[in-house]
Design brief:
The protein has about 500 residues and is α+β, with helices and mostly antiparallel strands. It is built from 13 helices and 15 strands.
């Protein structure tokens, strides 16, 4: 009697008996999941809600998914005299090794697609092809996963039992729905319904474009509300104010994206301490003038000034940008006469070990004059990360939306690998492959408004940066154009002359 009661309580997935006869008010025979949920119900593995709904788009919990899995694989010997209806099924999954101790601290929460995949792999005898690693390029968000979950997602993906979404993403951390769970588990019962993925010969360019487009949909700025939680006061008594979290998040996401474009880690975060300092710095710029080293106003408290000065002297600063995301993209250009020789703002944003950042934003007296402060060094946590070089525009694929005719190209080299004391022989050959247009760039190109070349070795984040800009004569970088970059005259620390080359193709994000 107790076992029958448990079967009625658990999962509540449906109440129809045969395909083609469906009494669920929220399920149509045309739904992609209809056949599978009906088959599971007809065999007694699942049941429905009292209001005659299936709720296909609702999330499924860990305990629900485990319970169905145990039933589907035919493990009937479950001890039911537990405190909660799912306890016996959970214990059985632990005994069988489908779930390991400590993997879940809460069995009543929603299960993710990755966790569902892990259980399915352990509970099934599905064949994983020996070359499963070759399928990595078919999962758009593969690079968002750590190595542990990459292996799980690839294994389950290549069995055909759990596929990706139409946009090519696997959505490892997305919640599994009741519809998805039904389809996956019914495939264990009916293996002939499994469709194996066909290994496609995607180029590095195709994979990179798909990934960058995917990340842009996630990280592009969307906030349009009020930017201030506490309104700043630019007259004494001064109030630094504070920014809306979503306004700051847009800025953080923009910085994450430009780092992704350069092939760097986007594992960066904002801290309250850094944000507070940056907000004080933005207000100081609005009051005392736009400068990394503004003078102290006579009526400004010294502690206030010292905190603000620390920020202005350790931040990327922008004036005129109406939001922080816009300011970041403007500073990434560094195309003006006063910045092109070193592209210092860009280099700080692209510092490989950057981890903690802070943002400040204040409106000045004039309606157009906004002051933005982006704290990127001094008294911030950093994470040492390996790198050989950092490119802008980056190799393989690069969006046209993040480059203009005036954009200087930059190659930041690791000074631990390349000798930055020997730069006099460095030159760059840039070739547009489509029409074989060639630009030779070297030390004679000193026009900061036109064709330009420089090698900068001062301490702007990484003290070794090759900067060059071809004379485009009004032309823009277009989708489908391929450029090849060849750098000669480099030296290793052992005195060995070496060269460096790469290629990229531009594409449109939209």
């Amino acid at each position: 009697m107790k076992k029958i009661a448990m079967l009625l309580i658990c999962l509540c997935l449906m109440t129809t008996v045969s395909y083609g006869f469906n009494d669920f008010i929220d399920v149509s025979d045309e739904d992609w999941f209809s056949y599978d949920v009906i088959q599971l119900k007809s065999q007694g593995y699942v049941s429905g809600f009292p209001d005659d709904t299936y709720r296909p788009n609702a999330n499924i919990s860990v305990e629900e998914f485990i319970t169905i899995t145990i039933k589907v694989v035919g493990e009937d010997e479950v001890i039911m005299d537990k405190k909660r209806w799912s306890d016996g099924f959970i214990q059985k999954s632990l005994d069988l090794g489908y779930v390991l101790e400590g993997e879940f601290d809460n069995y009543q929460r929603d299960i993710t697609r990755g966790e569902m995949s892990r259980i399915i792999l352990r509970a099934s005898n599905l064949d994983v092809p020996d070359n499963y690693l070759d399928y990595a390029g078919m999962i758009v968000d593969f690079n968002d996963m750590d190595s542990y979950w990459q292996d799980i997602s690839l294994r389950v993906f290549t069995t055909g039992i759990i596929g990706g979404y139409p946009d090519g993403t696997f959505s490892l951390n997305g919640n599994a729905t009741r519809a998805q769970a039904a389809v996956v588990l019914n495939k264990l019962l009916e293996p002939d319904r499994i469709t194996l993925p066909v290994l496609t010969d995607k180029t590095d360019f195709d994979q990179r474009v798909a990934y960058l487009k995917h990340k842009w949909t996630i990280l592009k700025p969307t906030y349009e509300g009020n930017r201030f939680v506490i309104q700043p006061s630019i007259v004494a008594p001064y109030v630094a104010g504070s920014l809306e979290d979503l306004f700051i998040q847009d800025a953080l996401n923009t910085l994450k994206y430009v780092r992704i474009l350069s092939g760097l880690s986007d594992d960066i975060y904002v801290s309250e301490t850094a944000n507070t300092a940056a907000q004080h710095g933005a207000l100081l710029n609005a009051v005392a003038g736009f400068s990394h080293t503004p003078d102290q106003p006579a009526d400004m408290d010294n502690d206030f000034y010292q905190l603000a000065y620390d920020a202005t002297s350790s931040s990327n600063l922008a004036m005129g940008s109406r939001n922080l995301s816009q300011a970041i993209r403007y500073l990434m250009e560094d195309a003006d006469e006063s910045n092109i020789d070193r592209v210092g703002h860009r280099r700080w944003f692209l510092l490989p070990k950057l981890n903690e950042v802070g943002f400040g934003h204040v409106k000045g007296v004039e309606s157009w004059r906004y002051f933005s402060t982006m704290k990127v060094f001094r008294n911030l946590t950093t994470v040492e990360r390996d790198y050989d070089y950092v490119l802008w525009p980056n190799e393989i694929a690069f969006p046209t939306e993040f480059v203009s005719t005036d954009t200087p190209w930059s190659i930041i080299l690791n000074p631990a690998q390349y000798d930055r004391s020997k730069t006099s022989e460095i030159s760059v050959t840039l070739t547009r492959v489509n029409d074989n247009t060639v630009w030779q760039l070297g030390w004679d190109d000193t026009d900061k408004l036109g064709q330009y070349f420089n090698v900068e070795t001062n301490y702007y984040a990484i003290p070794y940066c090759i900067i060059f800009r071809p004379l485009m004569n009004g032309q823009t970088y277009k989708s489908g154009e391929i450029y090849k970059v060849e750098v000669s005259g480099l030296y290793t620390h052992s005195g060995q002359e070496t060269s460096f080359e790469y290629a990229l193709e531009f594409f449109d994000l939209d």
